[in-house]
């Protein structure tokens, strides 16, 4: 670019910027009208233009603006102002063309006309604004009057109902209809004399019944703006019976803005704030607990400042859908880069879980030392979490059972997990623990009760092992039958009391979509933490460390009998060659001794033609016998079988296994109950004389 062009460019780029597309205001409109009239009068006087043309143009302009104003329903004052402006301007121009526009009389009168036009335009604009505001207010008053009639009827109905059911006379000061249309909220003032909102909350079932609410709908009370007020939420539409898929918006989240875990009865989402809190999720088999774990992992994957570590000793099933598609190269990104797993670390074995917990403890301690300058600059004792220093969320499936286990090996995991919960709050390492039920063995753990302030109980209509009073102490009126649907239950946070909620249904294809969509959003572990975690973290995705994930599935590539791909193939892992552990060797010796003494059969097999065998035909799965049981449980079953027809008791089995496995009588009682349900064992006698006999020694065996 030449110097001349540069100077020209700078000259064009300097000075005020005018918006020529903007409409005229009172000042610019008056200025435009007066300058236009002066220019027309000067030109007309110089060219001897007939004055009648100007009057005709002014009349046409006045008529046109009047018609346009009527079409948009302008006020009469506005129509008159615009028409008068055209006519006055046309009259002055005609006079100035006849008598000369360059006289002081012409110029002074033109200036006066301009000021008058500007003032009249401003007055008309203000009048139009006031007229529109009044129209809007009148419309709102009409709507409010209609709503007020409905609200007054609702308020009067519930004042009578609360008096009838709770023997309390309240005064309703507000009724808010929910935008979702699923119910409404009452803001009521309690009477003098010491009445509290808890009294109304305790009568929630009776209030719901008296209001004839549909099943699944409730009337719940909570604290109001002060202790003399109460908020009563009334649900009229049961949104929990609907199946709603996880929202398709996979936008970014943050630990500071909360992670959505589901939705309340008013159809509004509920968020868990886990910067300082741990979480406890309980739910029996079939309640939708695994689906909710995937909901939680989806929210963590979407967060820009969270790294998720997952422990699931049940073959890592909770985390595999978030890991395997990425590790196997089944997912692709538009830019061609590899897709990172949806979770940052997955442990499905005891050794890997212990390695992960050791790393978490080291990270927490190293952060305390390595980020002292950061804490000092931020003037806080809480490590500032951001994408540069991410929070580590440790999700432990059935972790409450780990904490309550009496097995000596599992106790090591429990100690490490407890240490993480105890020391890592300020340094941004928090846990989400799941359990199969809200029982004393789970909730008696002081660390869980103290740190897990975010709690969710998925009931699925199950009453056994669901003590809601222990799960949500201080909450009243919570009943399992209020949430009979899969994925539904109760949830409480420090910000909101325990109330009904439901988690979204998340589909396998959504897990894959979220994994791919959030791959570039996952933060990297900060240098201080990565150094503390060491090679154990850096090599977490090495082939030998992830071999157990791929061994979950074995199939024959030559067969086409797998319509859903290798993930659905049958794996007879018990038939493959595996290294025998000391526990497995002990259990095998038990079985060999029992087989030698009692001649027990190896299991059903396919008869060979001509061998005279009368055994039923079928697939021989004897190698899988006891695969899902622990070595201690296998030894207990062997002891029961060895007891013969006389049977044995739980105490005797526990004593026999105490030295080798540290098994307690309570654990053995649980096994015996399970074996009674599936027919493996039969109970003989009652009370202290009760004995348990293996089915092979009974008349029906």
Q: Can you offer a commentary on this structure?
A:
With 701 residues, the protein is α/β, with parallel strands linked by helices. The protein has four domains: 113 residues, no CATH class; 70 residues, no CATH class; 306 residues, Rossmann fold (3-Layer(aba) Sandwich); 85 residues, Winged helix-like DNA-binding domain superfamily/Winged helix DNA-binding domain (Arc Repressor Mutant, subunit A, Orthogonal Bundle). The chain has 24 helices and 16 strands. Strands 6-5-14-13-12-7-11-10-8-9 form a ten-stranded mixed beta sheet. The protein has a four-stranded antiparallel beta sheet with strand order 1-2-4-3. Helix 3 runs antiparallel to helix 4 and helix 10 packs across helix 18. The N terminus is likely disordered.
Primary descriptors:
701 residues; 4 domains; Rossmann fold; alpha/beta; disordered N terminus
What proportion of the residues is helical, as a percent range? 40-55%
In CATH, the topology of the largest domain is named: Rossmann fold
Tell me the name of the CATH homologous superfamily of the largest domain: P-loop containing nucleotide triphosphate hydrolases
Q: How many domains comprise the coordinates? A: 4
**Oligomeric state of the chains in view:** single chain
* CATH architectural type of the largest domain: 3-Layer(aba) Sandwich
How many E strands? 16
Rg over alpha carbons: 39 Å
Structural class: alpha/beta
Q: Spans with pLDDT under 50 lasting ≥5 residues?
A: 1-22, 553-578, 597-628
Q: Which shape, going by the Cα principal axes?
A: elongated
Number of helices: 24
């Amino acid at each position: 670019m030449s110097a001349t062009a540069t100077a020209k460019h700078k000259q064009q780029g300097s000075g005020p910027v005018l918006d020529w597309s903007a409409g005229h205001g009172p000042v610019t409109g008056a200025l435009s009208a007066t300058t236009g009239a002066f220019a027309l009068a000067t030109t007309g006087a110089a060219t001897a233009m007939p004055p009648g043309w100007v009057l005709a143009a002014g009349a046409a302009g006045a008529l046109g603006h009047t018609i346009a104003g009527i079409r948009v329903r302008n006020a009469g004052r506005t129509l008159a102002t615009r028409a008068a402006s055209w006519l006055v301007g046309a009259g002055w121009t005609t006079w100035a063309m006849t008598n000369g526009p360059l006289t002081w009389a012409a110029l002074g009168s033109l200036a006066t006309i301009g000021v008058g036009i500007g003032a009249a335009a401003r007055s008309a604009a203000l009048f139009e604004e006031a007229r529109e505001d009044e129209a809007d207010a009148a419309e709102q008053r009409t709507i409010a009057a209609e709503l007020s009639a409905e609200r007054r009827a609702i308020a009067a109905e519930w004042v009578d109902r609360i008096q009838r059911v709770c023997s309390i006379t309240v005064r309703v000061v507000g009724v808010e209809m929910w935008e979702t249309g699923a119910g409404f909220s009452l803001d009521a003032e309690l009477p003098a004399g010491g009445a509290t909102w808890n009294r109304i909350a305790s009568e929630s079932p009776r209030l719901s019944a008296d209001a004839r609410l549909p099943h699944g709908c409730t009337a719940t009370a909570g604290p109001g703006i002060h202790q003399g007020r109460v908020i009563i939420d009334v649900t009229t539409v049961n949104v929990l019976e609907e199946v709603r898929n996880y929202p398709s918006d996979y936008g970014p989240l943050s630990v500071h803005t909360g992670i959505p875990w589901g939705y309340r009865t008013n159809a509004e989402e509920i968020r868990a704030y886990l910067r300082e809190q741990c979480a406890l999720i309980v739910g029996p088999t079939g309640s939708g607990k695994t689906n909710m774990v995937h909901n939680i992992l989806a929210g963590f994957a979407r967060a820009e400042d969270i790294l998720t570590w997952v422990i699931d000793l049940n073959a890592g099933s909770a985390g595999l859908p978030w890991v395997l598609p990425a590790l196997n190269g089944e997912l692709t990104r538009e830019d061609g880069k590899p897709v990172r797993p949806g979770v940052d670390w997955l442990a499905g074995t005891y050794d890997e879980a212990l390695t992960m917990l050791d790393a978490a403890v080291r990270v927490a301690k190293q952060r305390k030392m390595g980020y002292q300058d950061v804490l000092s600059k931020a003037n806080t004792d809480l490590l500032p979490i951001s994408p540069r220093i991410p929070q580590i969320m440790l999700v432990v499936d059935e972790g409450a059972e780990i904490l309550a286990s009496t097995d000596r090996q599992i106790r090591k995991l429990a100690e490490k997990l407890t240490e993480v919960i105890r020391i890592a709050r300020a340094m941004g390492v928090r846990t989400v623990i799941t359990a199969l039920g809200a029982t004393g063995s789970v909730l008696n753990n002081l660390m869980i009760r103290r740190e897990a302030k975010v709690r969710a109980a998925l009931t699925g209509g199950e009453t056994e092992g669901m003590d809601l009073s222990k799960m949500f102490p201080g909450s009243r009126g919570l009943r399992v039958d209020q949430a009979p649907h899969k994925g539904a239950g109760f949830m409480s946070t420090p910000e909101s009391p325990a109330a009904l909620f439901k988690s979204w249904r998340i589909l396998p294809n959504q897990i894959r979509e979220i994994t791919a969509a959030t791959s570039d959003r996952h933060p990297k572990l900060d240098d201080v933490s990565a150094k503390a975690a060491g090679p154990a973290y850096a090599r977490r995705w090495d082939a030998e460390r992830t071999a157990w994930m791929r061994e979950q599935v074995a199939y024959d590539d030559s067969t086409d009998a797998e319509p859903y791909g290798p993930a659905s193939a049958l794996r007879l892992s018990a038939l493959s060659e595996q290294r025998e552990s000391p526990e497995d060797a002990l259990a095998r010796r038990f079985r060999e001794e029992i087989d030698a003494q009692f001649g027990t059969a190896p299991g059903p097999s396919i008869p060979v033609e001509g061998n005279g065998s009368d055994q039923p035909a079928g697939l021989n799965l004897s190698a899988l016998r006891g695969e899902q049981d622990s070595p201690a449980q296998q030894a207990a079953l062997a002891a029961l079988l060895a007891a013969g027809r006389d049977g044995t008791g739980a105490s005797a089995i526990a004593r026999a296994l105490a030295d080798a496995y540290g098994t307690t009588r309570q654990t053995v009682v649980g096994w015996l109950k399970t074996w009674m349900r599936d027919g493996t064992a039969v109970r003989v006698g009652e009370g202290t004389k009760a004995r348990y006999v293996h089915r092979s020694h009974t008349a029906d065996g």
